[in-house]
């Protein structure tokens, strides 16, 4: 996979935003897969700034959701639908009609998961999927030992992931125990995967995903199988990469027109 090391989180956000902007110029109605959490916020902020400056037209863009909590009431501020609408859809000037996501409140969760996979395919597939990585190497909510061929399904969150997400809730007890998530196989269907990681806490997971063996213990290592996967990391998140100098030199020598 392609690894790009940037100075800090802001630089990473701007680089990924430029990549998305370039995609929208080539394909105005591109389907963009978005992630939640604090890591991708600089991407959304930089992209929204380009939209406000009329540097890119996002009016025809479509947005799809990576995952969703199970059991949160409709409109809950920490449901991922609410987060995506607040942090991505509204700042880009889009409407809810441009947005699609899995239904975490459906009576038949299994059927809702199958419906979402089918809807993604019928929409023409995801053009660019933005990903984060958990401290245990998960992507989406595909926790360690998830099947590398998995499709959208319900998953039980690990204690570590619930602790990591507790900062978004008033109490750790409020963090749901289950989520609907795109499976690793579903994620790998996207045409371009962009994983963004910042901070020293992600360094071990990044190193295992990029340089370690392909393993269900590190779900993000599945990106090694993708024909167009880009990992953007700041210096802190790159601190445990053995080939960091090689990655820096490779990206520095890459023609500007080639992009990510």
UniProtKB/TrEMBL annotation:
Highest taxon of the lineage: Bacteria
Residues covered by the Glucosamine/galactosamine-6-phosphate isomerase domain: 13-226
Regulation of this protein's activity per its record: Allosterically activated by N-acetylglucosamine 6-phosphate (GlcNAc6P).
GO CC list: cytoplasm
Site (Part of the allosteric site): 146, 153, 155-156
InterPro entries: Glc/Gal-6P_isomerase (IPR006148), Glucosamine6P_isomerase (IPR004547), Glucosamine6P_isomerase_CS (IPR018321), NagB/RpiA_transferase-like (IPR037171)
Chloroplast keyword on record: no
Similarity-based family: Belongs to the glucosamine/galactosamine-6-phosphate isomerase family. NagB subfamily.
Role this protein plays: Catalyzes the reversible isomerization-deamination of glucosamine 6-phosphate (GlcN6P) to form fructose 6-phosphate (Fru6P) and ammonium ion.
Name of the protein in question: Glucosamine-6-phosphate deaminase
Protein source organism: Actinacidiphila oryziradicis
Annotated gene: nagB
